[in-house]
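Supplementary Note 2. Why include the ligand at all?

Several targets in our set were suspected to adopt different conformations when bound, so apo predictions alone were not considered sufficient. For every target with a known small-molecule partner we therefore ran a joint prediction. The input for G3I is given below.
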Amino acid sequence: MTTKITRRSAIASALALTACSQGAKSQPAVTPPPPLRTLTPFPIGCCVQERWLHEPEYADLLGEQFSQLTAEWEMKMEYILREDGGFKFDRPDSIASFAKARDMALHGHALIWYANENDAFKRLDGRGKPFADAYRNYILAVVGRYRGQARSWDVVNEPIADDGERLRDCLWSRNLGVDDHIALALEHAHEADPNAVLFLNDYHLELKPNKRATFMRLIERLLKRGAPLSGIGTQTHIDYDLPQGAVAEALRDLASFGLPIHLSELDISLGDHYLPALPGDRVKRQVAKYAEVAEAFMALPARQRFAFTIWGLRDDNTWLRGNSGQRPKDQPLLFDEAGKAKATCRALADVFGQRG
Ligand code: G3I
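The joint prediction is reproduced in token form.
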């Protein structure tokens, strides 16, 4: 099933493409589009690390362009929970204050994650009630602290195993149950902040239909048991050559529950490459893919467009360059290393500006 690309977005991405037809060694900046946050009624988000907020140029570009923040890692257990069981809130507080000062929403990320099995919990492994009490206390403490500041939370991040066939085996599921640890986390978060929108968030839901199906069966089970799940996050870390229509199909499926959809961590990689210069077509296809993803999101009912979040501000901020060093020259984002808008930004702005 292919996505209907509207005439407008075809023109939009064609305009953007001409700006980068000279190849991609250094992508030329384009005529700066209007600030993204002015183009849509729903938040345009960006992930952030607290240390970057102290760079005035970074802070000003972030606040000018985006209307929602996600802490890239400093609101996760790996930062907040110390090995002695104490909490560290300095940087999360700083991020929350920055969001408030710049009139930005705050999305909490992430309470429970298989990749954050903290020593303070490992010491309670198998201990039954002490483990369960600590689990509840952690969630109540973190969500409670940002009540009224964080509009939403990724309550459980990446619950589905990479093979897409089952839920992950992790410290949380072994101690509290495969589905139960997720339902409990949602209940504790709801108890701490009844107004927060509570998400499950996962990746490759557009790339792996079997993983999406397993994720959707989990959502069905949680909703059936009355768990306070109130949003669905699809990270959308994709490559420039993801098959046409894959994102639209995933969003249509995920939207079938009628819940708000957060396109929560978008970046579009130019792929593994060690070439001195990128083949020019990769950038053109990446720009067109940004327009396609924006169109797919705009095809959702307006009430289900929770937020559209990019996983990083400038290309030098991307996790992809540092992530085991596979993609040291990647340019997956909207702004170049000098903070100049790229054709990828223009493509998004043209779709949101026409359809927002
Ligand atoms: O900044 C500190 C540095 O001072 C310290 O010396 C160093 C070694 O401890 O750590 C540095 O912090 C690292 C941080 O990234 C900033 O680079 C953390 O250890 C590291 O764990 C953290 O990695 C983040 C990762 O999630 C794990 O939390 C990545 O930035 C972040 O992009 C990545 O984001 C995830 C989403 O949460 C879930 N979806 C996938 C996505 C990409 O993996």
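The mean pLDDT is 92. Residues 49, 72-73, 76, 78, 157, 203, 235, 265, 319 surround G3I (CB under 6 Å). Comparable summaries for the other entries are listed in the accompanying table.
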